[in-house]
Amino acid sequence: MGASFDQIGALDALLELILETTSDADGANPNEKEDGETLASREAVVRRRALRVVNDLFDGDAQGRALVDGAINVLDTRRLYRVVTQPSARSFVAVDPGFAAAAKRYVCFDDFCSCPGFAQVAADADGPILCKHMLAARLAPLVLNTFETKYISDAQYHEAISCRYDPL
Fold first, then answer.
1. pLDDT score at 38
2. Which segments constitute the SWIM-type domain (predicted)?
């Protein structure tokens, strides 16, 4: 779960670069064919590039491989969405519970997750921590077909990050 500053910084920079280099910069209709490329094929390229970056950065050891596998499992089995408050524009990624009876929503920020695994490792860590939910939250906009944004009022913010499972 521990990751170096360099790994996390490289991950964020490379994922941003993938978004920039595969976006539709000229404003054309992304559903129309353009040099034989469709929106679906662009999304596939983004997904493939993002997963390759993650594998290259974290696949060097068993702990890194477990982190990647865990994040992919979260993306496959959980519902993730960005929550943005209005008017302050604070945001986080919510990871809804899976099918386990005791599961609850986790809240992910760039440098914090409300999951128990993050808390356990953070108590002894002297560097940055990246849990599977945080990695999944970074990947979600690039690899999920649907990654929705929900808007809430600033007054609802503290209740939303309390991690009780009340549908947002």
1. 65
2. 105-142
Asked if residues 82 and 73 have their Cβ atoms less than 8 Å apart, the reply is no
Q: Collapse the DSSP code of 82 into the 3-class scheme (helix H, G, I; strand E, B; otherwise coil) and give the result.
A: strand
Report if residue 165 sits inside a domain: no
Measured N-to-C along each axis, helices 5-22 and 132-143 cross at an angle, to the nearest 10 degrees, of 10
User: Is 166 a domain residue?
Assistant: no
What's residue 26's pLDDT? Answer: 42
Where is pLDDT greater, at 98 or 81?
81
- Structural domain count of the chain: 1
Q: What is the CA radius of gyration of the chain?
A: 17
List residues bridging with 93 in a β-sheet: 82, 108
Biggest alpha carbon–alpha carbon distance for the chain: 52
Q: Say if pTM beats, i.e. exceeds, 0.70.
A: yes
